[in-house]
Amino acid sequence: MLYLVDASVYVFRAWYSMPPDMADGDGRPTHALFGFARFLGDLIERARPEYLAVAFDESLTSSFRNQLYPAYKANRDPAPAELLWQFARCREFCELAGVRHLSSREYEADDIIGTLATRGRARGLPFTVVTRDKDMAQLVRDGDVYWDYAANARYRYHEIEGRFGVAPERFADWLALTGDSVDNIRGVPGVGPKTATAIMREFATLEALYDDLERVRTLPIRGAAKLPERLSEHRDAAFLARRLTAIACDMPLDLEPAALRPRAPDMPALTGFFDRLGFGPMLRRQAERLAALATEY
Question: Can you give the pTM of this predicted structure?
Answer without folding.
Answer: 0.93
